[in-house]
Amino acid sequence: MAKKGILLINLGSPRSTAVEDVKEYLDEFLMDEKVIDYRWIFRALLVQGIILKTRPAKSAEAYKTVWTDEGSPLIVITEKIRKKLQKRIDVPVEIGMRYAEPSIETGIRNLVEKGITEIVLFPLYPQYAMSTTETVIEKAEEIRKKKFPGVRINYVQPFYNRDLYTDCLAESIREKLPEDFDALLFSYHGVPERHIYKTDSTKTCNMNDCCYKDTNPSHSFCYRHQCFNTTDRVIRKLELSKDKVIVSFQSRLGKDKWIEPYTDHTLETIPQKGIKNLAIVCPAFVSDCLETLEEISVEGKEQFLEAGGEKFTYIPCLNDEDRWIEVIRVLCEEQLNQFYLI
């Protein structure tokens, strides 16, 4: 009889804050054609010829500001999630990272060595994007075919529009939201605009009003729509008026056109509009990491205060909150049960 297991996948992290370790991590990450989608030669010239000459040292300093005694926050939190989930479910649970270790291959191998032949693989990204969900699935399938052809994998699909997730997110925000806030900013990780069009096999996306329609063929793969939809669902549950809510996109890289509005520009301009007491949440992430702990809660705070803001409240990711663990359990068990139907 087939044995089942669960593999939780997150982005990944350098082994340490040493410049060489950060450089190795960034090389693997940025050379992924799903992240920087140029032809290989141009990607190599950009990443290895330009970015890796200066960015590793700067990123290493940034990582030092968030690194814990246990290591990378992202890895530490993902392992905490694994341990809590393991107590709620009766199949083995492992973790893997898209970049660096423990890798997806390591995670699959750890399960296979326990006799597992059917794996529920859970990319821990609420919204679908070429540079997150898509690259995880393609990498996992490549590894499965080459190294573990006897293993079957079911994937947990993006869950941005699932009530159990948005209920969980809304309650987490509600508990941490200041009573006297002027606005709540939803800051999502940004992607180049061309990624949106590339993932749209229906060719119906116009990067305009289609994101706000109730239905559109492109929605299943449109990251921008899914971010706006996540926000709408959460603010309805929080019973917030739309005039107190802002959506923006962070972490852009290079000179290409990324989806707008940009978070850094937003933080620098909203104090002039009377928004002095700001709360901010980052729902593209389920685990706090460099992009939330340093880019938003440190750099973002500085930008906002220097621009005339007075109070800045960063609302942490779901991390290992018990209600979030329960969401993971339910989503994983749905896919575990699907094996019986195949």
UniProtKB/TrEMBL annotation:
Entry-linked CDD domains: Ferrochelatase_C, Ferrochelatase_N
| GO terms assigned for molecular function | lyase activity
**Which major enzyme category is it?**
lyase
Listed under catalytic activity are: heme b + 2 H(+) = protoporphyrin IX + Fe(2+); Fe-coproporphyrin III + 2 H(+) = coproporphyrin III + Fe(2+)
Listed Pfam families: Ferrochelatase (PF00762)
Q: Where in the cell is it found?
A: Cytoplasm
Named in its record, the pathway it takes part in is: Porphyrin-containing compound metabolism; protoheme biosynthesis; protoheme from protoporphyrin-IX: step 1/1
Q: Does the keyword Lyase apply?
A: yes
Q: What is its EC number?
A: 4.98.1.1
Keywords of the record: Cytoplasm, Heme biosynthesis, Iron, Lyase, Metal-binding, Porphyrin biosynthesis
InterPro entries in UniProt = Ferrochelatase (IPR001015), Ferrochelatase_C (IPR033644), Ferrochelatase_N (IPR033659)
Any keyword Lipid biosynthesis? no
| Sites where the protein binds Fe(2+) | H189, E291
What PANTHER family has UniProt attached to this entry?
A: FERROCHELATASE, FERROCHELATASE, MITOCHONDRIAL
Stated role? Catalyzes the ferrous insertion into protoporphyrin IX.
What name does UniProt use for this protein? Ferrochelatase
Question: Can you name the source organism?
Answer: Chryseobacterium rhizosphaerae
* Classification lineage: Bacteria, Pseudomonadati, Bacteroidota, Flavobacteriia, Flavobacteriales
